[in-house]
Write a structure and sequence with these properties.
alpha/beta; Rossmann fold; 3 domains; 7-stranded parallel beta sheet; 3-stranded parallel beta sheet; UDP-glucose 6-dehydrogenase; UDP-Glc/GDP-Man_DH_C; NAD
Length: 436
């Protein structure tokens, strides 16, 4: 790749979400000589990044942001100014699964990525290095390059503009488009950024998400590589460098969550179908269905917490229970109440929400008169609560569903709880004959 001979002093990121905000904060931390600006079209999101309550929770992130904010780390709504001044621009916009048109429910929606590329082309007045951080399918960098080329020509009347993605052109390039996929795990993002298993320039992260979902066959990825001129050895090496593919990420749980896991599997399905690889598409579809199986456990949720509520498997579980007219008392020490309400309101009307959903300020409030407790994340605080006290407050028989297998089940049974856990027969933990 021929990169313009520029002195890097200013970097910006389009998209102040989970990936953009955390990644650029770490860049600011390790590169104090570089001015880092994170911009977003959502003014509320920017206000939160500039406040004492960040829009996301990651251990250690709050301290890093507060240390550098206002010095070499800035959060702004002035997108054009940030684009114009930066020598390197990260694109970290939302790329959800399409919910309309061709590929609906499977293909990746690149609307936001394309809009970002058009805006960069419109505003830029000097050479830029464009880095795609968003989760994108194969060939997306070429799409971005094409948009930059034609938008720049039409808007700025440039007769000849060179855009490169991966060639040996030695001419000075106006834009260089690179792909630098993220491999962050929610709850350990700061550590993942500071101590990465690998850093990739180019390629895509779909195969890693597929392997994380359930040890996806390398033969499926191989077939896709053959159709797209990718090197299966390089892809295998990139996937294998991820520590999460080991035992740590193969523990049983409620199912895979996060915005990227789910949509990456769906995107792999769609890519496989468009490349006329129906067997591979079917394999990926099975991964999606396996995850869906775990989101339909019929117990009453009265208590849960999420690392990042976005696309969490708990959300469809809550919606399923609400359809059964279950009453939910929700306690989350980190997620914002507005965020919880927003995600649960997507498939529920306001009247039913206010009638059946209660967002609580303390765990004691949540468990009072409740029938069951559902643990949805492996935070240490959930291991340290006084469950004997909770038991006294609950309706009997009282149940605990351990969705992360982090609690002392024997001790809970001795207190009187009926304990159930993912992947473990409930009879092992029940007492007093309460077995269903």
């Amino acid at each position: 790749v021929c990169i313009p001979d520029i002195m890097l002093s200013k970097v910006c990121c389009l998209g102040a979400g989970y990936v953009g905000g955390s990644t650029l904060s770490i860049i600011a931390h390790y590169c104090p000589e570089i001015q880092v600006t994170v911009v977003d079209t959502c003014d509320e999101q920017i206000k939160m990044w500039n406040s004492d309550t960040l829009p996301i929770y990651e251990p250690g992130l709050d301290e890093i942001v507060k240390l550098h904010r206002g010095k070499n780390l800035h959060f702004s709504s002035d997108i054009d100014k940030a684009i114009d001044e930066a020598e390197m621009i990260f694109i970290s916009v939302n790329t959800p699964t399409k919910n309309w048109g061709l590929g609906k429910g499977r293909a990746t929606d690149l609307t936001n990525l394309e809009a970002a590329a058009r805006r960069i082309a419109k505003v830029s007045r000097q050479p830029k290095v464009i880095v795609e951080k968003s989760t994108v399918p194969v060939k997306a960098a070429e799409t971005t390059s094409t948009i930059l080329q034609f938008e720049a020509k039409s808007r700025r009347n440039i007769s000849s503009l060179t855009i490169t993605t991966n060639n040996n052109d030695n001419k000075l390039n106006e834009f260089v488009v690179l792909s630098n996929p993220e491999f962050l795990a929610e709850g350990t993002a700061v550590n993942d950024l500071c101590n990465p298993d690998r850093i990739l320039i180019g390629g895509d992260s779909h195969s890693s998400s597929g392997k994380l979902a359930i040890e996806i066959s390398i033969n499926a990825i191989s077939a896709i590589c053959e159709q797209t001129s990718a090197d299966i050895k390089e892809v295998s090496k990139a996937i294998g460098a991820d520590h999460r593919i080991g035992p740590y990420f193969l523990n049983a749980s409620l199912g895979f969550g996060g915005s990227c896991f789910r949509k990456d599997i769906l995107s792999l399905m769609y890519i496989s179908e468009t490349l006329n690889l129906p067997e591979v598409a079917s394999y990926c579809l099975n991964l999606h269905f396996i995850n869906a199986f775990f989101t339909c456990i019929h117990i009453i949720i009265v208590f849960f917490s999420l690392k990042n509520i976005r696309d969490s498997p708990v959300i469809p579980l809550c919606n399923q229970l609400l359809q059964e007219q279950a009453e939910l008392a929700i306690y989350d020490p980190k997620a914002l109440h507005k965020q919880i309400e927003s995600d649960l309101l997507i498939n529920n009307n306001k009247d039913s929400f206010s009638q059946f959903v209660h967002i609580c300020s303390t765990p004691e409030e949540a468990v009072t008169n409740a029938y069951a407790i559902l643990i949805c994340t492996d935070w240490k605080c959930f291991q340290e609560y006084d469950y004997a006290k909770f038991y006294r407050l609950m309706t009997k028989p009282a149940r605990i569903f351990d969705g992360r297998i982090i609690l002392n089940h024997k001790q809970l049974s001795q207190i009187g709880f009926i304990v159930e856990a993912i992947g473990i027969a409930s009879e092992s933990f029940t007492m007093n004959g309460y077995v269903e």
